[in-house]
Amino acid sequence: MTDACIVGWSHSPFGRLDDPDIETLIGRVAGAAIADAGIEAHEVDAAFVSLFNGGFSAQDFPASLVLQHVPELRFKPITRFENACASGSAAVYGARDFLLSGRGRIALVVGVEKMTATPGGEIGDILLKASYRREEAGIPAGFAGVFGRIADTYFQRYGDQSDALAAIAAKNHRNGVDNPFAQMRKDLGFDFCRTVSEKNPYVAAPLKRTDCSLVSDGAVALIMTDEDTARAMGKAVRFKAAVQVNDFLPISKRDITGFEGAAVAWARALEAADISLSDLSFVESHDCFTIAELLEYEAMGLTPRGQGARAVLDGWTAKDGRLPINPSGGLKAKGHPIGATGVSMHTLAAMQLTGQAPAGMQLPRADSGGVFNMGGAAVANYVSILEPLH
Fold this sequence. Notes:
The structure is a single chain. The chain is α/β, with parallel strands linked by helices and 390 residues long. It has a domain at 4-118 and 216-230: Peroxisomal Thiolase, Chain A, domain 1 (3-Layer(aba) Sandwich), CATH 3.40.47.10. It has 13 helices and eleven strands. The chain has a nine-stranded mixed sheet with strand order 3-2-4-7-1-8-11-10-9. A two-stranded antiparallel sheet has the order 5-6. Strand 5 (202-204) and strand 6 (207-208) form a beta hairpin. Helix 2 (87-100) crosses helix 13 (338-353), helix 6 packs across helix 10 (290-300) and helix 9 (260-273) crosses helix 10 (290-300). It is globular and about 55 Å long.
């Protein structure tokens, strides 16, 4: 069975950018991705734009902002996708569905978010819109508080995992040094990440500042085509599987230490791709908080429940380990401009699989890769299995 392919991309730096708004950020990447794919703008049949916003941007309704920079798309379908922190993957999957339906041959996907212009006191409240506010609005420290509660429950059940969380943070910051798009390119080291200090205080105990992803601006775009069209392109990465699973929004209705929706999505994706986890060369996984990456080890089947710490403490998830997790540095080092995150994860995976990742970040073996992007606390779960098109 043929599937959709990624054939071009453009990735802005993530961080506190001078761009005044999402319109200029879109302009950084939309045309550049088209050029990278070696096509003309008029050949794009549709565009798919991801933006969480929720109050970060005064300008909502971002779909037709693409026309400000790519006017050749006028009178073509352009749709905005939003699914919390997985908005980017929702747009990627929308483009894939469009191509598989036969309605077009070439699609543009743009993910964008401008967060750093928002006053700090408002950011936590905006992010809480991705939780079940009827029950969770009063949790201190905003969305970090939600994951702090998850971590505390996990610690009570399986013991203090602070060493593992610090090891995850240190690993991802070490990896981020080699990612030119990353917001923080500094190897903080295990000791700094493990120790509570003035520079690394508790944000939502037991989570410290180094356990939390960064507030970021950024944009990423990619070009997708059907497989027949991709064969004539200069590079192509094919979807072997693309699975979305949604779970209950209230954490009161779930075992919040289980990430059950993520586990179901991983199981279905691996089955659809007809591979096992050990066949993957790497995974880009959604480490919005270090406890999330720990639980994702268990959800993907790398370890049994309650034993996720083993994967990082024994070096399995390092760049030279049995399954490198977040060789890009992940959200932890790269930053997390929400609408751009899922598009970034797919783009960085495609770079690895085509041997075009930046020096130092490129893995020596990249035959197949996994992407796990989630919205909320494992509510909207997306797993993609990707491979080079041969």
